[in-house]
Amino acid sequence: MIVITSMPSNSQHVFELTFEKRARYLFVKGKGNPKNLQAVFDSTQALVKIIEDTKANLFLLDYSEVITHSSNVDVFNITRLYDAKPILHDPV
């Protein structure tokens, strides 16, 4: 299992992704508190990088230990971004 922390550990916005290549798929688990729009972008970019680096065709994403606090405006902007750019390599 490999651990990637996408926010500094001394920050209140710690978000961690762990991943493990399994026989037929990539298992990715998120844990932490991304508390703003930039934290959501950073974690999404980290996820895309993991998928690209491992060349996974299938993945299972477990966000059961992720708690996201966002304003209504941030949620609207995230939805708008996902609709416009599904792969999310670079935030708009």
Main sheet strand line-up: 1-2-3-4
Uncertain spans = 88-92
Gyration radius, in Å: 13 Å
Strand content: 25-35%
Quaternary assembly: single chain
Sheet/helix structural class? alpha+beta
Order of helices and strands: EEEHEH
How helix-rich are the residues, as a percent range? 25-40%
Task: Give the overall shape, derived from the CA principal axes.
Answer: globular
Biggest sheet layout: 4 strands, mixed
The tally of beta strands, per DSSP, is 4
How many separate helices? 2
> What gap, in angstroms, lies between the N and C termini?
32 Å
Give the SSE layout:
Elements: E1 2-5, E2 15-21, E3 26-32, H1 37-54, E4 59-66, H2 72-84
Task: Summarize the structure in words.
Residues 88-92 have low confidence and may be disordered. It contains 2 helices and 4 strands. The protein is of the alpha+beta class and 92 residues long. It has one domain (2-84). A 4-stranded mixed β-sheet has the order 1-2-3-4, with helices on one face. Helix content is 34%, strand content 28%.
Throw out a few tags for this protein.
single chain, 92 residues, alpha+beta, four-stranded mixed sheet, 34% helix, 28% strand, disordered C terminus
Nutshell version of this structure?
By secondary structure, this protein is an alpha+beta fold.
